[in-house]
């Protein structure tokens, strides 16, 4: 009996379960293989970004690139006020403080989950493990509580915070149309926009056209999203209108964005061959910026 015959005899419920299992397998593959998406800008305009082949890099206002020893994690957030500045180097099960103890701002990385430090002084992170699927609040003294749970949270690939303290996520529970959602501190979940990427033979390895990663929100509530699968950066108004403000071409793909004084900073990665997919040092990052006038400039490229 062929696999197609077996599939045709399945109940609708079984088919749905198989489809979700396939999507989860796809996202898990992306999570294990993808480069980092952490990029942040401090109040001085200095840029920090993750390098899953090396650690963390800093770009000062003069454009000088400096290496900061750190674990090769995927996600990073900035603690501008220093709520976690006195934490241990490694704390909780997943977190690492990159900057020296007592240093403000503090840079916090996470090994497995997208995270952000909110204006209330707590870390919020997406526990994407199957069977958990929740947004967790972690206080500086280590207390954790669940903000909200939902099956779709298994597929979160980016998280950011707005000026009102609400969280924004990208999630890929529908592989063909990734969703940008807003989560208030009361736990209300709403859809801001969905993104359907165009099919293209020039897709990044091990991804799909609609796949989105890191995102950022500016003071007006405008959202910027690294649409990795379509090699683009999206701009989404508070009303949900989606436009493309940057379209890259092979071999580069954006995975993270940060906004500072009207400038959008984009973390991009150079494609690798299939045999180097799990070789972290093979991934090469660069940072570009999109000015208020739309001009795109390369800020720095890491060399191996």
Outline the structure in words:
With 304 residues, the chain is mostly beta strands. It is 9% helix and 40% strand. It contains two helices and 24 strands. The strands form six sheets. Strands 1-2-3-4 form a four-stranded antiparallel sheet, with no helix packed on it. Strand 19 and strand 20 form a beta hairpin. The longest helix has 22 residues, at 12-33. It starts with a helix and ends with a strand. Residues 1-5 and 13-33 have low confidence and may be disordered.
Outline of this structure?
The chain is mainly β and 304 residues long.
- Low-confidence parts lasting 5 or more residues at pLDDT below 50? 1-5, 13-33
Classification by helices and strands: mainly beta
Average pLDDT metric: 90
The geometry reads as globular
Radius of gyration: 19 Å
Largest sheet: 4 strands, antiparallel
Proportion of residues in β-strands? 35-45%
Number of strands: 24
Order of helices and strands: HHEEEEEEEEEEEEEEEEEEEEEEEE
Q: How many DSSP helices?
A: 2
- Percent helix, as a range, is under 10%
Cα-to-Cα separation, first versus last residue? 51 Å
Biggest β-sheet: strands ordered side by side in the sheet? 1-2-3-4
């Amino acid at each position: 009996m062929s696999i197609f015959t077996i599939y045709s005899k399945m109940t609708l419920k079984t088919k749905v379960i198989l489809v979700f299992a396939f999507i989860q397998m796809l996202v898990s593959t992306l999570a294990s293989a993808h480069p980092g998406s952490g990029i942040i800008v401090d109040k001085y305009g200095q840029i920090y970004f993750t390098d899953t082949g090396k650690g963390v890099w800093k770009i000062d206002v003069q454009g000088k690139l400096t290496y900061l020893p750190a674990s090769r994690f995927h996600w990073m957030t900035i603690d501008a006020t220093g709520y976690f500045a006195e934490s241990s180097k490694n704390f909780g099960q997943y977190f690492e403080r990159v900057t020296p103890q007592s240093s403000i701002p503090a840079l916090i990385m996470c090994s497995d989950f997208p995270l952000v430090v909110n204006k209330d002084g707590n870390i919020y992170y997406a526990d994407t493990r199957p069977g958990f699927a929740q947004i967790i609040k972690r206080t500086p003294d280590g207390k954790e509580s669940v903000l909200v749970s939902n099956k779709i949270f298994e597929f979160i690939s980016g998280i950011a915070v707005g000026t009102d303290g609400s969280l924004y996520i990208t999630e890929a529970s529908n592989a063909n149309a990734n969703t940008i959602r807003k989560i208030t501190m009361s736990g209300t979940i709403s859809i801001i926009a969905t993104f359907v990427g165009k099919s293209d033979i020039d897709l990044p390895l091990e991804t799909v056209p609609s796949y989105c990663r890191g995102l950022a929100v500016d003071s007006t509530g405008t959202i910027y999203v690294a649409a990795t699968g379509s090699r683009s950066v999206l701009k989404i108004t508070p009303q949900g209108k989606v436009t493309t403000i940057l379209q890259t071409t092979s071999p580069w793909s954006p995975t993270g964005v940060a906004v500072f004084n009207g400038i959008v900073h984009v973390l991009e990665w150079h494609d690798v061959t299939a045999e180097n997919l799990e070789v972290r040092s093979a991934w090469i990052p660069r940072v570009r910026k999109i000015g208020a006038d739309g001009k795109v400039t390369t800020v720095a490229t890491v060399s191996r």
